[in-house]
From TrEMBL, chains A, B:
The lineage of its organism: Bacteria, Pseudomonadati, Acidobacteriota, Terriglobia, Terriglobales. InterPro entries: ADH-like_C, ADH_N_2, ER, GroES-like_sf, MDR_fam, NAD(P)-bd_dom_sf. GO terms for molecular function: oxidoreductase activity, acting on the CH-CH group of donors, NAD or NADP as acceptor. Residues 27-339 form the Enoyl reductase (ER) domain. This is Putative NADP-dependent oxidoreductase. SMART domains: PKS_ER. Keywords: Oxidoreductase.
Length: 345, 345
């Protein structure tokens, strides 16, 4: 029997806790596994069973240092965005059976006051994975980052890095829908083939095997108007060198820098910001969550029309999370990386 | 006798031509002096006698490399903004006696088709120096850079570097007028005293004798909302570290980098652009010249009200230009640097 009367000790939680500040890529030993019964709910608390846990480049930031959120304290459950279902509740705002999304953590059961959790609707015909594939942080990042910050106009040239990544692949497709000439930068021939042949990018640059600056000149004959940056570092510099006057750089991520053991170097071509009158603007998708409903109907429509495709990389079992997250930083994953924690109802 | 019938050979031109690409600060030997008669005017040409020549940090960029304008070719007259008066004309758009402003060059007489020259009005009660002091590039840079790019709101904290410079001193005063808490960064006690006591800045930081990062913490207790950057380099990094979320960086200049013999390093704190959701935007005042009339009445009113003060550093004689321009890069000038080329009518 489920609900507010069920005895919590029946729930055995399983958690990954942060054991060490990562140096370079994550290592297995940065996390420790804990199992313990869930405590009884206090008044106002809710228990959520996590179903799908999202693994994202920003996890590395959260584990390493204070940034736009405080660093995860050592010994605490690792922070992570997940979707889950309320299984027990002493909070009138989250009745049992409600699907929710939020910072539920790398664990089977979340217990807390529900702050920051957002109720989500199960979309008929879709798995809850949709909320990691396109309706969650990934889709909203691509949608608002490109349209609100990058503001591409029809006929302009859009370049996106980490173009086979979860965000990048969606940015390029939205750019296509908006009538841009879209060039993606990705690592390796398989990723490059995928974004051109399956997703409809106009061109792809394999940064592992090509000179990016030369390729940008070749594939962006009219220069770059919008550069959606997921990687920072040398590729950002190459893009800056090819930007048109009044170009816009969407500073979304800098994955090339997150695992660096040296202090990151700033972009050497920074002076071009002045001479080319560039706008470089950073953003965090959390700021846009209150506007999610502006984007979701449009994203669903594009999916239904087959104009927005995405690939999921679903790893089965919470136990796999520390190993899986490392794939984000060694370039080995394609598509949105998700850990399946438990079954959808 | 003046006018289109006067024989041009009566006009002996005097010019500084660019002889070498500068390395580090300008040197006297980067320029060579030429005297020669002015050629007869062709149909559609105009002859302008230069009166006041503006010396600006961007001169170093023009002399060194292609940027937002092509580099000045070696052997050509050095490029420079000046105000002058039409003394002979075969161009109906520029009758004799018209005052004009534009890229008239480091010379006594400009001869050309008038492209890019703007007629200017002599403002009653003011010297034509007004067009270098506040109504020309300097005032428009401060006005549009701060208000259009920086968009400060009342009560916000504005920091400006090179604050005793021609642009910086005006930016701070406009920030004051708009109700900002204004902190200037300048080199040396005399400049710092001037911007606080005479111009009304709330605080000044002497970067030559103070730790800028510590001083920004002290003088900007609520963080920085708008940073108007004229210098780049280490001071830009210190400002980035102190920016508030959603802060704006007006990328106006990077004088610390112009004379560097090493390739400039990008801002090491660049990753903060993402986590703090900063907007860094470059601009060039030339883009705003068509909107000058939006600003000029307001600037004149503030001057008349005593709310906008400026200091001129007028050097007498075109011969002095190569030596004078070096003062911009060794920190020794205060106020707008102008060379008086000939007398006002």
């Amino acid at each position: 029997m489920k609900g507010i009367f069920r005895h919590m000790a029946e729930y055995i939680n399983r958690q990954w806790r942060l054991a060490a500040r990562p140096v370079g890529n994550f290592k297995d030993s940065d996390f420790t596994w804990h199992e313990e019964p869930v405590p009884d709910l206090a008044d106002g608390q809710v228990l959520v069973r996590n179903i799908y846990l999202s693994l994202d480049p920003t996890n590395r930031i959260w584990a390493a240092q204070d940034s736009y959120l405080p660093a995860v304290p050592l010994g605490d459950v690792m922070r992570g965005v997940a979707v889950g279902v309320v299984e027990a509740s002493r909070h009138a705002g989250f009745p049992v059976g409600t699907f929710v999304q939020g910072l539920l953590g790398w664990q089977l059961y979340y217990v807390g006051n529900g702050q920051g959790l957002t109720p989500i609707a199960k979309i008929p015909g879709h798995s809850l994975l949709l909320y990691h594939g396109v309706l969650g942080a990934i889709g909203l990042t691509a949608y608002f980052g490109l349209l609100d910050i990058g503001r591409p106009r029809e006929g302009e040239t859009l370049v996106v890095s980490a173009a086979a990544g979860a965000v990048g692949s969606m940015v390029g497709q939205i750019g296509n829908i908006k009538g841009c000439h879209v060039v993606g930068i990705a690592g390796g021939p398989e990723k490059c083939r995928w974004i051109v042949e399956d997703l409809g990018f106009d061109a792809a640059i394999d940064y592992k095997h090509e000179d990016v600056a030369a390729a940008l000149t070749r594939y962006c004959p009219k220069g770059i108007d919008v550069y959606f940056d997921n990687v920072g570092g040398a590729i950002l510099d190459a893009a800056l060198a090819r930007m048109n006057n009044f170009g816009r750089v969407v500073a979304c991520g800098a994955i090339s820098q997150y695992t660096s053991e040296k202090p990151p170097a700033g972009p050497a071509n920074f002076l071009l910001v002045i001479s080319k009158r560039l706008r470089i603007e950073g953003f965090i998708v959390l700021d846009y969550l209150p506007r999610a409903q502006e984007a979701i109907p449009q994203l669903l429509e594009w999916i239904a029309q087959g104009r927005l495709k995405y690939r999921l990389d679903v790893v089965d079992g919470l136990e796999q999370a520390p190993r899986a997250v490392q794939k984000l930083f060694d370039g080995s994953n394609i598509g949105k990386l998700v850990v399946k924690v438990s079954d959808e109802p």
